[in-house]
Amino acid sequence: MSHKYVYLFSEGNKDMRELLGGKGANLAEMTKAGMPVPQGFTVSTEACTQYYKDGRQINDEIQAEIYEYLGKMEEICGKKFADPENPLLVSVRSGARASMPGMMDTILNLGLNDVVVEGLAKFTNNPRFAYDSYRRFIQMFSDVVMELSKKRFEEIIDQKKAEKGVKLDTELDTEDMKDLVNRFKAFYKEEKGEDFPTDPKVQLMEAVKAVFRSWDNPRANVYRRMNEIPYDWGTAVNVQAMVFGNSGDKSGTGVAFTRNPATGEKALFGEYLINAQGEDVVAGVRTPSPISQLQQDMPEVYAQFAEIAGRLEKHYKDMQDMEFTIENGKLYMLQTRNGKRTAAAALKIAVDLVDEGMIDEEEAVLRVEPKQLDALLHPQFDAEAVKKAKVIGKGLAASPGAACGKVVFSAEDAKEWHERGEKVVLVRLETSPEDIEGMVVAEGILTVRGGMTSHAAVVARGMGTCCVSGCGEIVVDYEKKQFTLGGLTIKEGDYISIDGSTGNIYAQAIPTVAASISGDFGRFMGWADKYRKLEVWTNADTPRDAKQGRSFGAQGIGLCRTEHMFFEETRIKAMREMIVADNTEDRKKALDKIMPYQQGDFEALYEAMEGCPVTIRFLDPPLHEFLPTKEEDIKEIADELGITVARLHEVIASLHEFNPMMGHRGCRLAVSYPEIAEMQTTAVINAAINVTKKGQYKITPHIMIPLVGEVKELKFVKDVVVAIADKIIKESGIDMKYEVGTMIEIPRAALTADEIATEAEFFSFGTNDLTQMTFGFSRDDAGKFLDYYYENKIYESDPFAHIDQKGVGKLVKMAAELGRKTRPDIHLGICGEHGGDPTSVEFCHNVGLNYVSCSPFRVPIARLAAAQAAIKEKRAKA
Ligand code: PEP
Ligand code: MG
């Protein structure tokens, strides 16, 4: 038998997501449960992959199967495609495994042409409805399938309304709709040089192709990269019998959630529109009524919907996001899926579901996406400042958080301004999928139209970006790049602040403060901590960072980059004196000046970490980074240091390197100038002794030697450290232990990790440099060319953000094994940026590291990711 690519809804179930996509699998599951679902079929994700394999063609075999299933669908529905007597019309919708904004979403009313529309008019006895459906179809098909400008169609409608002197679409009658159909078709012909396709079968195949094509559009690719969705998953296509929410006042369409997606509150939440089709709700063109209103408008339909919603939630054991249509008083379910929600709602729902006995703690831990926690940890407006600020308008509190930035009016401008370092708030009439890149970089999103389920609201919540939607009082002038609100005119580049938790809008910059964590969050993180095996440490160079990390639950400092302490105004002079010194004695003198600063910093770090391990990394960057480059600075600094400009130039020239990241840095500095390591050791050990003497904490400092590639160089530096440390400890008379370890960040260190472990008491994988050196990609410049690699699908994600498991990961795994062979109790961690990236954390768990270390704000994310990794592993083994 040939391969099966197409499935009736009655043939699938919820566990077939990989093949049918999320939407298809859930439509099948609802069908199985006997819910009122308009029937149809799903073209599988395998057909999509095949389409790409065949050079972006749907091959004859798959086309034949699609038509065969269209026949089966006709039988089930008792209507025929393109039958003027009683036509079957369909919707065509994409549905990947994971819901993916940016891809083609929906085409409605497919199957109409000049003949069929007349039949539909007669059959329904409602010609206005028939022609309204037809004009919508032409519009959507031209836009989505044929990629004509949506805006032009809207302009044609606006022009028609102006001619008639009316404001609303609903004020256009049958003849007007007919006229719009003709104008649309004329515009289509003008643009495409051919007639609008009249054969419904051609329409169908073109629509399926368009869905497959949209899997590879730039917006989908951006979203996939952000969310690490593999390209080879492909998307499914759902072809479903149309039911009509726009067939009169007993009809309507809406979107609803079983719980509030912004707060998590347990109550049916949503919106609907009477006499409308799906896209009217999502596009935000008309402002919908709350779902509670349906109870008054159509009590029986409401009761049935509420019952189904409850059943679906129990069935999926999660909050559901459902689309429905009412056709002449009869309810149809068009979709259900686990609803997207804010971080706060995700926590509340997870905790409530446990309390309601629906899921256990382990399951709850898996329900919150680690990255989402970010939204809870990010700043809110300063309470005092916001009290004094003047609210100039209010919209819907669509996605919480506070945002302050300069106004821009297009996604392109948002991107451009962001690239030059500006913080922006994107202001739009409404957003659509093509705005995604601008939305990603904006601090906040403000829209004039659209409800809580509009594109802007849904996408912003998913990204954890603050959003205020549907502020109808705003009058936007895109041409002049300005808007008016509350009697004020705000121009592009002016500051505004928006509060996604209240909907308030302010025409001024308002300072923000860090978020505080409590309530559900604490309880939830407690569960996560119960399951995780990895420890989570933080990268912190200052006592402030250390305190922040500790308050977020860090169990140690995995990386203190000491060079950051040298850059400070008061210290850089001594550092420069050290660099320009041409003999050891002068160098030591300069280092003596730096020592007390370092010691003070280390004491503060130990105290901030309340006795947890603190890993101090010795000086790492090339020394030229501490010297000026501009001529006027060179002169000033030469004066300050009491040397001639010529001498400073000489030093700068002598430090010049063609490849500084592979140059005189890391432990190579300590090999050349052991006095630097001596000074740093003295500061580390003295600080630990002082804090230990105070009696509250017993400190065991961890000294970390960077950029080691050969055991002998590690031994060389370690000997320097040990000689000094032992001497100081002996003199102090207290019993103090310390550890000397290394970073594994050069491939050679990973390859010879068994030898390195003879000297190193711990390894910390510096995956920033390890990625740089394994790929041979400069970590500072790769951004310039990686886009080409994404475009050509050579790499699907940034190896500096998500660990490259195949290559870099192989080195990590190997080094961990080799290290443990030599020293079974060696402590293994990671301190590159990957330490706070959820998929990389999962990798670290799987290869058996002891801890991950990441920036303070990512500590909770890493804690949760580590717990999820442990639970997933346990479940896979069970
Ligand atoms: C690393 O290379 O991964 C690392 C943590 O060190 P740095 O980023 O300071 O080079
Ligand atoms: Mg490094």
The main pleated sheet reads as:
8 strands, mixed
What small molecules does the structure contain?
A: phosphoenolpyruvate, magnesium ion
The best one-word shape is elongated
Which residue ranges are poorly predicted, with pLDDT under 50 across at least 5 consecutive positions? none
Record field, number of beta strands: 33
Gyration radius (Cα, Å) is: 32 Å
> Span from first to last CA?
35 Å
Q: Enumerate how many helices there are, as a single number.
A: 36
Tell me what portion of residues adopts beta-strand conformation: 15-25%
Helix content: 40-55%
What does this protein structure show overall?
- The protein is an alpha/beta fold and 878 residues long.
- The chain contains 36 helices and 33 strands.
- The longest helix has 25 residues, at 584-608.
Map the helices and strands.
Elements: E1 6-8, H1 17-32, E2 40-43, H2 45-53, H3 60-77, E3 80-81, E4 87-88, E5 90-96, E6 106-110, H4 114-124, H5 127-145, H6 150-164, H7 174-192, H8 200-214, H9 218-227, E7 235-241, E8 252-257, E9 269-274, H10 278-283, E10 289-290, H11 292-297, H12 299-316, E11 320-327, E12 330-338, H13 343-355, H14 361-367, H15 374-377, E13 380-381, H16 383-388, E14 391-394, E15 396-399, E16 402-408, H17 411-419, E17 424-428, H18 436-441, E18 444-447, H19 455-463, E19 466-469, E20 475-477, E21 482-485, E22 488-491, E23 495-499, E24 504-506, E25 512-513, H20 520-531, E26 535-539, H21 543-551, E27 557-561, H22 563-566, H23 569-580, H24 584-608, E28 614-617, H25 631-641, H26 645-655, H27 667-672, H28 674-694, E29 702-705, H29 711-732, E30 739-744, H30 747-751, H31 753-759, E31 762-765, H32 767-775, H33 783-791, H34 808-822, E32 827-830, H35 838-846, E33 851-854, H36 859-877
Parallel strand pairs: 3-4, 16-17, 17-18, 18-19, 26-27, 26-33, 27-28, 28-29, 29-30, 30-31, 31-32, 32-33
Antiparallel strand pairs: 1-2, 2-7, 5-6, 5-7, 8-9, 8-11, 9-10, 11-12, 13-25, 14-24, 15-19, 16-23, 20-21, 21-22, 23-24
Helix pairs in contact: 4-5, 5-7, 6-7, 13-14, 13-20, 14-20, 20-36, 21-24, 23-24, 24-28, 25-26, 28-29, 29-31, 31-34, 35-36
The chain binds phosphoenolpyruvate and magnesium ion.
Phosphoenolpyruvate binds near residues 745 and 832.
